[in-house]
Amino acid sequence: MGATVALQKAFVPKFGLDLAGGTTVTLSPVTANGKAPSQESLDRAVTIIRQRVNGTGISDAQVAKANDNIVIQIPGAGRDEALRLVSTTAELRMRQVLAVAAATNQPAAVPTAAPTPSSSAAATPAATAGESTPARESAPPSGNASPAGRVLSKALTAPSPEPTSTSTRATTHRRAGAGAARAKASPSATPSPSPPAASEDAGDPLAGQDTSGIEPALLDEFRKIDCTAKNRGQGAIDDPNKQIVACSDDGTARYILDKAAVQGTEISGAQAGTDPTTGEWIIQVDFKSKGASLFADITRRITSLPAPRNQLANVLDGVVIVAPTIEEAIPGGSARISGSFTQTTATELADQLKYGALPLKFQQSSVVSVSSTLGQDQLRGGLIAGALGLIIVVFYLLLYYRGLGLIGMASLAVATVFTYLTVDVLSHNAGFRLSLPHIIGLVVSIGITADSFIVYFERIRDEIKEGHRTLRSAVEVAWRRARRTILVADAVMFIAAVVLYFLAVGDVAGFAFAMGLTTLIDIVVVFLFTKPLMSLVARLRFFSKGHKLSGLDAERMGRTSPAEQTLQEA
Q: Whole-angstrom Cα distance, residue 315 to residue 242?
């Protein structure tokens, strides 16, 4: 663990809200009928809020359910910023794609020519760095539908090592979408080359694309944005009346998008299901009356435009979740998105379309802000308490056990270092954050750890008193008897900590976690350090002959010295 800490250069653990300062917001759901919300809607709300909070660059924010409430902890964030992040209701917006490129300006392979359409054969997109994972968006099939009535769609995704795989997810710009699938070419579709992933000259991502009608400031922003970064605009509240630059939600592409043509409030529902003909998973999207008219208008207007301006991006919380190509107008108020979806990806996309906004309304049950100054004061107080507890235990060990107390001190030092390294590694690799309840648990555990040493030392003394054994033999016999007591005591403590951790919440659970962790460390230290060290010091004359400062002298243990015993026998 020490090597891990050194390699990561993470010498200080991360602190929780009560030590680092920040804001805790508790949201309670409000339902129309006053009943408890469904777990599905709560899970979806947690996901949206977590993406919104973490995506803005605020590190290590925690969003979790607590019964029917949602608790958001944002270390270091101010009260106003935290309230804005969790109170804003995001909306889904459908925007025309004006330009598209790969996520960064790094060179990529030049795409090959687009497939030539035919009425019967399937065309396979070229396997290039800017390859797309096809998805199809179409009007629901009817009795008089012709093959030309199917609206196909294509959009950029991450490069795929297997561009011809037909089983890869085809969700356009989905988090797990990375493969190219085989797409059927419509007889009436006009083929167009795939958007370039990178320019062939000077590395300009806009080379070869039509930039007319795009604001100059957006062109500069598009060239500079890095969609592979952790903060790529998630949680941003976009203005529906302005053009924007946005990234795909999986960080594989960047877009310049026109003003919103249809807003998520105009979607009446979205449902995942299977196509009865092909058996593939699809998403059925239904619009309200106004939304149906707007959707028909935008699909009619962009269907004849060259790529990528014939794509209609769906933007949620500042990122593009899907951007299918529209190849014909879709009237009627219903649309269908199809492709190589699985049940999971189809359901997830349907939820995103259906819950463009948070699926529930929430009211703020409580808002608690902790200043960084108060957090530092609490941290200082916790460290002082721990230091005082350690000093008192060390003083007792030296006063009562003398030389044996040095072994106890060395064991406590090892346990302290081991505990610190464990907390540090968990903090930087498992999301653990040290809080005040954890510190309290660690301070209390000092006594638990010392108790194991005391049990062992007293057993050694008993063996010497009762059996007139040598110290070396007494150490081994005492260990066989003491370890059972130590294991039973630590097992009881660990079981109590586990029960308390799962039955309690918040601060109490943090205290239980620290207790359980230090109990395990106590067992490791006693078995792998204290016992071997005691076996070594038993060979020293200072201890084996019962020096008066060793803690094993005859007077202290209430037995006669070897010289006195000889005189009595005479």
A: 13
**φ, ψ at 490 (rounded to 5°):** -70, -35
Helix orientation angle between 39-54 and 79-87, rounded to the nearest 10 degrees:
130
Question: Can you read off the two tokens belonging to residue 270?
Answer: 């979205």
Instruction: List Cβ neighbours of 389 (8 Å cut-off, separation of 6 or more).
Output: 443, 446, 447
Query: In one letter, which amino acid is 20?
Result: A
- Alpha-carbon gap, residue 443 to 375, rounded angstroms: 18
DSSP secondary structure string for all residues of 447-474: HHHHHHHHHHHHHHHHHHHHH---HHHH
Please state, in angstroms and rounded to a whole number, the distance separating the CA atoms of residues 43 and 483.
46
Query: Which tens digit of pLDDT belongs to each residue from 320-376?
Result: 888 888 878 888 888 887 767 788 888 877 877 776 656 677 777 887 777 766 767
- pLDDT category of residue 83 using cuts at 50, 70 and 90: low
Closest residue by Cα to residue 249 from 54, 538, 438, 431: 54
State pTM to two decimals: 0.50
431 CB-near residues (< 8 Å, 6+ apart) = 60
Q: What are phi and psi of 386, to 5 degrees?
A: -65, -40
In whole angstroms, give the CA distance from residue 386 to residue 381. Answer: 9
Residue 200: C-alpha distances to residues 226, 302, 524 (Å): 19, 27, 61
Q: Which contiguous run of DSSP H or E holds residue 563? A: helix 562-569
Amino acid code (one letter) for 286: D
Question: Smallest Cα–Cα separation from 137: which of 149, 127, 126?
Answer: 149
Q: Would you state the pLDDT for residue 150?
A: 34
Which two structure tokens, joined as six digits, stand for 221? Answer: 């922003």
Which residue, 426, 516, 514, 510, is CA-closest to 73? Answer: 510
Question: Residue 253 has which token pair?
Answer: 């592409």
Type and span of the H or E element at 251: none
Neighbours of 561 (CB within 10 A): 12
Rounded Cα distance, 503 and 41, in Å? 24
Beta carbons of 518 and 419 less than 8 angstroms apart: yes
Q: Identify the helix (H) or strand (E) that includes residue 308.
A: none
CA distances from 95 to 162, 234, 262, 292 (A): 30, 17, 7, 15
